[in-house]
Amino acid sequence: MKHFEQQHIIVAGDLMLDHYTYGNTQRVSPEAPCLVLSRTSEQYSLGGATNVARYLNAFGARVSLFGLAGNDPAGIRLKSCLAESGINATILPAPYTTEKHRIIAAPGRQLLRVDNDSNATLSPDDIKTLVETIAKAHPAAVILSDYNKGMLSASACRAILDGCLRENIPTIVDIKALPFDKYHSATIVKGNRPEMMSLAHTYGLATDSIPRLLAEISRILDCKYTVMTDGADGIHIDSPEGYTHCTAMPAKVCDVTGAGDIVTAFLALSLMPAGVSITEAAEVAAEVAAIKISTPGTDVVTPMQLRARDKILSAVEELPSHALRGVTVFTNGCFDILHPGHIELLRRARSYGDTLVVGLNTDASVRRLKGDGRPVNNLRHRAQMLAALQYVDYVIPFADDTPSRLIRSLNPDVLVKGGDYTPETIVGADYVLSHGGRVAVVPLVPGESSTAIINACRL
Fold first, then answer.
1. Backbone angles phi, psi at 69, to 5 degrees
2. Homologous superfamily, domain 8-310
3. Does 48 have pLDDT greater than 90?
4. N or C: which end of the chain has fewer CB within 10 A?
């Protein structure tokens, strides 16, 4: 994300503390028709505008955050989380802090959410000071993250957006509620489907065509771009060039909390000097959001995770054309528990060519080969660990017992296996050799194997 590096972005909006209580449910309360949660852990995270700020910060931007919070326990913890994240925050006093408390039962089912909304507003003097601060800093972009908790009142929004217009500072607003005209003249207006449908109802707009609806919103609010997030249907964009649609990245949904904040943060990429198009920014946002929603918990997605996801493919056909221009090397395995023997195999394999593709047995395939109780790490985790290694260029899972079909599809220049094989016993060796390729055997690292590690743990 070199476009974010050291770019100054100001985020103003509703500060929230996300509070999670995790536990197990095994019985119904004798006092009422509800489940009893046996608490196992607590977790706290940044939410709302603070979540937008921490994603920008994690990907290299220099962030200044403005918002309201109290000195209550939630506010003290919020400020501690911001300090730990290294985010520069100006927090104005409020009677108390907005907190969302989610009760989660294993294996990740949300039972209840308890909200404590602050609804505190900025004073006229605070609004004037914020507008002056923005003008003086002249950031690359200003993001208004509105959760309808009081910070971004109509007067605050209008003053900030008018000030940015005077200073020619691009702006992104994440809309929430009436009055929608307070978002007029923002560079990018972004909302989810329910929010956009509410806006359409307010202005009497037809909703039978998303392209027409977004174009009308762009006209009414006088914004350059209108962006609608639409869950599994992806991201819809109206721009001066017309309508575009960014498809959602495939993901197993565990927790959708914060996905909209990710999109808001990464739309800023399109406003950076020498940045990318808004469609490209939305595609990056969709990719980061897919990683986030597929992982339970509140940890921020990192640049390394984003780069690693790009390496994990579902078929040879997904390999970019440049990946096959040089010498292609292939190896395969279960890679259940990564150990020094694996690292040496992959290091040596990568040294034989320009691109290393690793075939990875699926969970069912590992079970057939290794027996019940294997794999220890599931396919997603094994693929992520391999993709994080510098020696590995691409990971392609395969469901067969052998990689024969994958090898024939890839047609590698070099086939590599560990030293417990001979060239005669390596699956696919005859095919690779018949096409002028090479077969290499890498000596084993003594005493290193997943099975040995597992057996040692059982002693």
1. -160, 155
2. Ribokinase (3.40.1190.20)
3. yes
4. C
